[in-house]
User: What shape does this take?
Amino acid sequence: MPEATEQRRRLTPRATEIAAEARVLLEESGPDALTMRALADRLGIKAPSLYKHFPDKHAVEVELVAQMLAESAEACEQAEKQAPGSLTALGAAYRAYALAHPHLYCLGTERPLPRAALPEGLEERAAAPLVRACHGDGDLARAVWAFAHGMVILEIHGRFPGDADLERAWETGMAALHR
Assistant: This one.
């Protein structure tokens, strides 16, 4: 996890602790529950103390989005090692990560990406396994990501009927996009 380690190095130990507690709060209760006051309460401090480590709530959210991108990159890199070039393996890894962390996934994908505030190269790293599986075809990689994201977000939000065969839908979609 070299990228995750690098991200931790840019935070002070106290900021790392705050980010970890913010993540627990987010994962337990969702993005709307993540407020500076709620975070301070969980840490047993006054909210203004948080601002010594993060200038605002957005900065805390950026850290969490960076964690999501690094972790999903790691999941996809692992899938790529096990099954080089397999869109099915990448899709399964992406889906498994998103479903294991639905609130973090939603925080990181349902708002504009804070590119300027993310660690340099992180977005590219997160996309790289898919771009490689698509043989460098950026348009195909975007289409595959759009399919995977759409499937995952609809699943997270319970938009499929209870009898929907999502495994088959994933297989069909990936097969249609695989060249």
DSSP finds ten helices and no strands in the chain. The chain has one domain: 2-177. Residues 1-8 have pLDDT under 50 and may be disordered.
